[in-house]
Each structure stands twice: as C-alpha cells, then as structure tokens.
Amino acid sequence: MKDLYPAIEPFTSQMLPVGNGHRLYVEQVGKPDGIPVLFLHGGPGAGCEPYHRRFFNPDHYRVVLFDQRGCGHSTPHASLEANTTWDLVGDIERIRQQLNIEQWLLFGGSWGSTLALAYAQSHPDRVTGMVLRGIFLCRDEEISWFYQHGASRVFPDYWEDFIAPIPQQERDDLLHAYHRRLSGENDIDRMAAAKAWSVWEGRTASLHPNPAVVSFFSDPHTALSLARIECHYFVNHAFLRPNQLLLESDRLADIPGVIVQGRYDLICPMTSAWELHRAWPGSELKVIGDAGHSAAEPGIRSALIEATDRFAKELP
C-alpha cells in the first residue's frame, strides 16, 4: 500500500487577480520543469491543505495548487459575488496561461471532481488525463440525498446536530433554510449555521471517525467559506444544466482517467462514479472496499498515489 510523499514546501506562490475583486492564492511544488498537474480541492469553499501537495512524486511532477474563489488564502473570504462554476473554469484557464503551461493532468476529489469534469469538457485539448475521487456530479438528487433525506438515515445522531439551527417549520427544505441564514446579515446565526453545516460534512466523510478531518471542517475560517459557498452553489444547481456532466461525457473521449471511489462513500454515493465510468470509455474505476469519502482514508490515499505514479510513467 502506498502512502503520501514527504512534506514539501512551495517553490513559488503568488496572489493572482482574476476580476470582480477576487485574488487567488496559487502555489507550485515539486519539479519546476516536471509534468504539470493541477490539484482541485473540494467543497466548493474548502481550500487546500498542506497534505494535498503530497499525492505526487516531487521528482516527476510540477504540482499547481490554488484556493478557489472565496476560500483558503484567496480573498475576499467567503465571498459569493462572481462565484460560479464557470468563473472557476475561467480561473483555471487564467492560471494555466499565467504559468505558461500547455497541457496538464487534473487531480480532484468530491467537488474537485465536478470542477475537473467541467473544465475538461470545456477545454479537452488542455487535459492530458484525470485522477478523480469521490465523484460528485452536482445533480439535485445527490444534493437532496445529503442535505434532506438519505444520509440522515445512516447518521441520525449527527443529523440531529445538523438540523438543530433550523426551526421545525423550515425543515422540509433545509437547503434554502440554511441559505437564508448563511447569506443573511445576522453574524451569530450565520456562524452557527456554518459550523453545523461544515461539521456534518466532516463527521460523515470517513468510514471510521477521523478527528483530524472533523477538526479541519470545524475550523471557523474553513466552516464559514465552505458552508456559504457550498450552499450558494447548491441552491443554484451548481450553475449546471440538469445532468450536464454526464450528457457531455463524450467530450472526454480522448482523455484517460482513473476514478477512485470508496464503496461506503455516503457523501457522494457510488452511483455517480459508476454512471460516469460507464459514460467515459477512457476511465478506469477503482472501488475501495473499506473506505468512505475522504482522501485521507488509507485505501483511497494509496489508490490515488498509484494513479499519479502511473501517469508519471505514461505522460511525456
């Protein structure tokens, strides 16, 4: 079983203006003339963590990581203005051009898989391959499963804490009830909602309880951006047409990919990974039988590193 490469620091970092007041934190690690790979974090709104740099052999890869609009080190924090899927796709192209990269491998999990698919379908000629984990196609049924009725049956104890900030009379539409609080002016209500929303995700992310994952999600800085931006995207159907990412999967025809999916992923159940794999002939599906959603789980972590090691040998 493979494990993370040693901790590494960026060889360069910058704040990149992308319009509408947004400035993105962008960093690079590894080999400056290595194989370009773009890391796409989850959420939307979670931001990057130092361990994300360690899925790639630094002797082979030039790894680009960035905090998407409104999260991590990017500014303004938790901003919803000019923050859509297509703004982020445009940001990826700006970063590619700014760094003089012709083509790159995409690596993303959960929302990062959504964004990778949206970018690859918009710019297939710029993508050499994809390593995706915990597939999230941002369809209404997937959002309803996690935020209204589905995952609640598996985690009724955690669910009770999730719905606590919402009065009984508003619980038939939790997504919009949360949206009113997360986009409202009451600072106390907004932070309470953000904490409950984010901790629900952190608690359910792994097959076995992982305090480190819960701690990251419960951090106030992360919780506010994650909850506000996720909820903003989800009430807007992720700014996608119904089932768009599957319907346009033919645009991935010439792109090889590895899909890593935890069998017991209850944030992004395996149905989406299965449907994507069937619609994308160039993909290989690796089902991890003893894992949930988190990239930190040993089996998922190992499979992701196996995939990046394989691409390091196959890509020019």
UniProtKB/TrEMBL annotation:
Residues annotated as the enzyme's active site: 110 (nucleophile), 265, 293 (proton donor)
Domain of life: Bacteria
Pfam families, alphabetized: Abhydrolase_1
Principal location listed in the UniProt entry: cytoplasm
Molecular function GO labels: aminopeptidase activity
The keyword Protease appears for this protein: yes
Residue stretches making up the AB hydrolase-1 domain: 36-295
Subcellular location: Cytoplasm
Coiled-coil annotated spans: none
Catalytic reaction(s) noted: Release of N-terminal proline from a peptide
One GO CC term, this protein: cytoplasm
EC number(s) on file: 3.4.11.5
Keywords of this entry: Aminopeptidase, Cytoplasm, Hydrolase, Protease
A Gene Ontology BP annotation from the UniProt entry: proteolysis
UniProt-listed NCBIfam families: pro_imino_pep_1
Family: Belongs to the peptidase S33 family.
Protein name: Proline iminopeptidase
